Amino acid sequence: MDIQTVGPNEFLSIDGPASIRVMNGRLYVLGVEYGSGDSFTVMRGRRIIAKSLNDSKIDVVLGPEGKIEKVDGNNEVIDVWDRALSAIPLRNSTIIILGAMDVGKTTVTTILVNKGVRENLRVGVIDGDPGQNDIGPPTTISASIATSFITHLTQLRNLRSVFVKTTSIEHVWNYVLDSISRLIDDLKHNYNADTIVINTDGWVSDSTAIKFKLEIVKRANASHIIVIKRNDEVDELLKELSSLARNVIVIPSPPNARIRDRDDRKIRREMGYSKYLMPSRELSINLRERPIINLPLFNGLKYDNYIISLIRRSLNLPIHYIEQWGNAAVAIGNVKEFQVRNLGDVNIAILPENWESGLLVALEDKNNYLLSLGILRKIYYNTGKAVVSVHESFNNENMIDHIRLGMIRVNDNYEEIEKVLYIGKVESLLSSQIILKR
Ligand SMILES: Nc1ncnc2c1ncn2[C@@H]1O[C@H](COP(=O)(O)OP(=O)(O)O)[C@@H](O)[C@H]1O
Ligand SMILES: [Mg+2]
């Protein structure tokens, strides 16, 4: 325990893990004024700037790596942000936050949540960053309703998640768009949100990223767009946004933000997977009843052994399972790598044996919402059953409508070991033949 005093208009930089209790005075933190008796926490790995509004006395408890120090307020963005964000009328608004990685998108989302809560609004929040999702698991777009003050989005209860198969939006951005639209709809109509705040991923630099971001703005029918500008990263995006005739608010990024490198992000995601999957138990799923929606094995045309041996011979590949849907087929064989071959007018996607082992999957309900993440362990081609590891507390088995394959492979420690891009290829091959439910 450590009691500190701060004068009016003094600024504190607090690195988590830390817990702060105001004994006297007032602190402004992320859109909230904390008075005597109030307390808040700063999570590990995060930095929060607090401003003392008068003579304050605070009680500080720091965890390992936690740190608190007074900083020069002249460089801080706290007041500039507050002015810009306070000008936004929150009720009936849809606000989108755009910017590159580590510029403060999640922090600005948090501030807007608090401002809404302060006005007694039910704030709908969508975390649209599948790489660093704070509301739901990694690989999802997740939504919540905030009704009390927070210092981190992780404090929000996850109401709905849509699994988008990977953490790299560039492979799945169309599906992400659909997912965000659905969640907005849901928050408005089923959860009575008074306002919607949408946090996005940090992919802003190339032309597809810009197209994707503009499309979110249009589909969400955003009333306000906040762009956090660090250097010239978002200039191109800003140019395009200016033609959309919406309220675009440009704010600077904080000068001393903690930058996470690729490894930090990966470790955080892996902690994310294990949080949702460990301790685990195994579930046996009958794929004839609960199919894999993006690779509906056991629902296609199967061959007898004679035909399989003919195909094996003409492809000159050791294939032991094959199933066909119209002009597309999927085969499993003793091949090193995924490949597509043609036989007559049939395109055959050939998957290596054990292709499924360690693949991240989603167990989804009939509306395509996530019930649970899972790890696919094994598919038994003779019985049509799959073994999937889920969190031991998962108890919505009866609600599983189907499985959706993801594009990430993890090992037993939930470390990402492969981006399985061929899942996307199989999907597009099949989608021309069978109507995949979305
Ligand atoms: N005003 C600030 N000054 C210093 N660091 C900040 C400030 N606001 C946020 N941070 C820290 O900067 C990092 C990146 O912020 P975050 O909101 O997660 O960015 P993004 O969502 O764009 O990746 C986080 O560790 C966060 O705690
Ligand atoms: Mg973020």
UniProtKB/TrEMBL annotation:
Swiss-Prot/TrEMBL cofactor(s): a divalent metal cation
Organism: Vulcanisaeta moutnovskia (strain 768-28)
GO biological process, one term: RNA processing
MF (Gene Ontology): ATP binding; ATP-dependent polynucleotide 5'-hydroxyl-kinase activity
EC number: 2.7.1.78
UniProt entry tagged with the keyword Methyltransferase: no
Protein name: polynucleotide 5'-hydroxyl-kinase
Gene3D superfamilies cross-referenced by the UniProt entry: P-loop containing nucleotide triphosphate hydrolases (3.40.50.300)
One matching Pfam family: CLP1_P
SUPFAM superfamilies linked to this entry: P-loop containing nucleoside triphosphate hydrolases
Biological role stated in the UniProt entry: Polynucleotide kinase that can phosphorylate the 5'-hydroxyl groups of both single-stranded RNA (ssRNA) and single-stranded DNA (ssDNA). Exhibits a strong preference for ssRNA.
Keywords, in A-Z order: ATP-binding, Kinase, Nucleotide-binding, Transferase
Catalytic activity annotation: a 5'-end dephospho-2'-deoxyribonucleoside-DNA + ATP = a 5'-end 5'-phospho-2'-deoxyribonucleoside-DNA + ADP + H(+); a 5'-end dephospho-ribonucleoside-RNA + ATP = a 5'-end 5'-phospho-ribonucleoside-RNA + ADP + H(+)
Domain Clp1 P-loop intervals: 99-277
